[in-house]
TrEMBL record:
Gene3D superfamilies given in the database record: Ribosomal protein L13
Pfam families per UniProt: Ribosomal_L13 (PF00572)
Higher taxonomy: Bacteria, Pseudomonadati, Spirochaetota, Spirochaetia, Spirochaetales
Biological role stated in the UniProt entry: This protein is one of the early assembly proteins of the 50S ribosomal subunit, although it is not seen to bind rRNA by itself. It is important during the early stages of 50S assembly.
Name the UniProt record assigns to this protein: Large ribosomal subunit protein uL13
Gene Ontology CC: cytosolic large ribosomal subunit
Keyword terms of this UniProt record: Ribonucleoprotein, Ribosomal protein
GO biological process: negative regulation of translation; translation
Amino acid sequence: MKTVFVKPQEVKREWHIIDATDRPLGEVAVKAAYLARGKHKGCYTPHQLIGDFVVIVNADKALMTGNKTQKKMYYRHSGYPGGMRSFSYEKLLQRRPDAPMRLAIKGMLPKGTLGNSMFRSIKIYSGDKHPHAAQQPTAYQW
């Protein structure tokens, strides 16, 4: 088999919109990471940026199953001794409604400069309004 190398100017990057209302958070994150990486395209190669743009609306209305709303913890460290901070899903959702979705997607993308570029092509909004109507995003069909 041969690896297909696609030139950046030949890549057609489309816009997709995903409504996260009443959908499991992980399911929405998987679909967004899948589209941002470009794995749905025939010319996919893991080391190239060929993925599409993804707009996620109503990220704060995504569901968590079971007791994860109280038991799921997020951790942050300041770098100093004793600098570990932890937040539950509920508290993080109150503070920054789009943060759980953002963290879930970021963990599913590759680490490094390529993953950072892919993550920049994902736009996450906690409400149902977004400023990307000019790009004419197509609704993602589940």
